[in-house]
Hints:
Layout lengths: L1 H33 L2 H18 L1 H4 L34 H36 L4 H15 L2 H11 L4 H27 L3 H8 L4 H9 L4 H24 L11 H9 L7 H28 L8
Helix pairs in contact: 1-12, 2-4, 2-12, 4-5, 4-7, 4-10, 5-7, 6-7, 7-10, 8-9, 10-11, 10-12, 11-12
Amino acid sequence: xxxxxxxxxxxxxxxxxxxxxxxxxxxxxxxxxxxxxxxxxxxxxxxxxxxxxxxxxxxxxxxxxxxxxxxxxxxxxxxxxxxxxxxxxxxxxxxxxxxxxxxxxxxxxxxxxxxxxxxxxxxxxxxxxxxxxxxxxxxxxxxxxxxxxxxxxxxxxxxxxxxxxxxxxxxxxxxxxxxxxxxxxxxxxxxxxxxxxxxxxxxxxxxxxxxxxxxxxxxxxxxxxxxxxxxxxxxxxxxxxxxxxxxxxxxxxxxxxxxxxxxxxxxxxxxxxxxxxxxxxxxxxxxxxxxxxxxxxxxxxxxxxxx
Length: 307
């Protein structure tokens, strides 16, 4: 019993050292992230957008305007104290609809990446590790076929076959997005397959899934997370484009692309109907792009100045 207690006491200094080491690594990572003011700005923008989307029914002035609501008396009203960003052709508050549209945009980005990243990364890792085999040729030739078609054109083709709607728009964007991750992971896996740690794992008899997902995949975390953060804004932009042409989220549910499309018919007189939703799209893209750059800096360890 006493020997067991002594063993536990002996382990405590090691655990404290590991905790201190983790805390030091987190501090260094934050310094690498915060040295770029644009990255911090991106973090603030993304946090603000997420909070607005989550608390939309409580922070917007007219929550009922996010649905099937009409007020033709106040239609196309210019920005004022009552409606900060003006109203649309149905008399609905534009600020309210922009905030509620963040929900659908973020929901689409999360689900698209949740489907595209595992599929693309798994196929890319498998093809990269088995480079030179028939499976590598099959996977990468299929990937090249998808990449050879312009992304937006492919999404429009897929969603036009299906019924317009948010779910089908997400399917269309997922179909066009996974090849980018397959190509990224293929390059990384191809360069890692001849590293010593992979060769040693093969020599001791480790299985292929173990080598791919336990040896090679952990070394791909930095580019994966960086690309995911950068891709959120572009997925939202593609989704807004599909909504702009009527193939995305359908009315009366608010959508940034649909709001821009509806407002373009009233330009330049009711300019606020188009300008403010467009500005919201720009803010989302900038926020996630800045955040992605910061995540890339945070996960990199090449600059000793900030270590």
